[in-house]
Amino acid sequence: xxxxxxxxxxxxxxxxxxxxxxxxxxxxxxxxxxxxxxxxxxxxxxxxxxxxxxxxxxxxxxxxxxxxxxxxxxxxxxxxxxxxxxxxxxxxxxxxxxxxxxxxxxxxxxxxxxxxxxxxxxxxxxxxxxxxxxxxxxxxxxxxxxxxxxxxxxxxxxxxxxxxxxxxxxxxxxxxxxxxxxxxxxxxxxxxxxxxxxxxxxxxxxxxxxxxxxxxxxxxxxxxxxxxxxxxxxxxxxxxxxxxxxxxxxxxxxxxxxxxxxxxxxxxxxxxxxxxxxxxxxxxxxxxxxxxxxxxxxxxxxxxxxxxxxxxxxxxxxxxxxxxxxxxxxxxxxxxxxxxxxxxxxxxxxxxxxxxxxxxxxxxxxxxxxxxxxxxxxxxxxxxxxxxxxxxxxxxxxxxxxxxxxxxxxxxxxxxxxxxxxxxxxxxxxxxxxxxxxxxxxxxxxxxxxxxxxxxxxxxxxxxxxxxxxxxxxxxxxxxxxxx
Length: 484
Fold this sequence. Notes:
Layout: H1 2-39, H2 45-58, H3 64-80, H4 84-100, H5 104-120, H6 124-140, H7 144-161, H8 168-180, H9 184-201, H10 204-220, H11 224-241, H12 244-260, H13 264-281, H14 284-301, H15 304-321, H16 324-422, E1 435-436, E2 448-449, H17 451-458, H18 472-475
Antiparallel strand pairs: 1-2
Helix pairs in contact: 1-11, 2-3, 2-4, 3-4, 4-5, 4-6, 5-6, 5-16, 6-7, 6-8, 7-8, 8-9, 8-10, 9-10, 10-11, 10-12, 11-12, 12-13, 12-14, 13-14, 14-15
């Protein structure tokens, strides 16, 4: 008896310690959020919008009311200060809120507005994240093909950005789609790829999400022990993080596993806790899954009346989520978005064509201007070259004339030099009339030259010979002048 009391005491103490530990973690997480809220008072404009968006995202699994409040505040402030990126992110946060509240038409409307803004800003990261969110929306709507389409687009953009660590979230979501399509090995492959990235990042929340979804896949493969192990790990992590939405999800999953293992007491305990928490969050998907789990539990116990009651409740909530009115609104929003997208594409093409035509016109004008300018320059160059040739010819003629003048001047100078030499006193023989050349000894025979020779050497004069009237009778006495 004492041993039993001791064991019960130890078990109770451990339970109390665990609850206190979880409570302390919850208090720590809430204290951090409270601190962020206090810091809001010090922030203005863009910084305040960014902080509001962050708080809205942090509260997505804790308090829907605060999630909505911060997202709405971010939208209003970003509009007043014309902060487009802040507004795009705030609309994404609103989309997450409406999705969690199963108001899918409003969720899609917010996502489409967010997507349009991000694409207009050419913000690939924001676009990729919104596409992922839209994939989640269509997953909830059980349109798995469209969900996979949006996830794939998100992955493609994130790969283009070159940040491998950003792929964790779309990978885990793709794994969920494959699980619903009963492609379990592919689902596990993507869940483990996501888990590897989350472990590299050291993200406790991301790791817990991967554990939970890996557990879900093992559950579908009827591998209950593995499923139980992963669900317990994820539940412990979620409780420490204060993630109420995820805690409910894990407890529902644990209830389902224990139903499969025929441990009905544990199954009912977990499902009851999940039910109580679901009602406080008013999350229709969680409530619906909880009703279905209870229906399967009671069917396994053979209590078909209760099983039918819970199945009816499940069907009622399911129909609320997938009401014709809700589906119609979503279809209208999709059509409007696609129409606007096509209109914008047509307008973009028209603008591009107009711009192209303008560019061609400008190019033609530039080409014509270049040709005209080139022609003008060519003509000017020809005119300059022609003038150069004329000047050169005149210069050559002038140079030639100058050369001739210089030659004549040189000759004249030489003639003047000769003439100059004949001036002054010339030593001449009184008898033979020979001239004595300067600087030669008078006794030298070569010193004396004839008068004719002397003059011819020093001038351009030449001599012709005749006889004067005085000399004629002297030297030619026989010559009769009258015979001439």
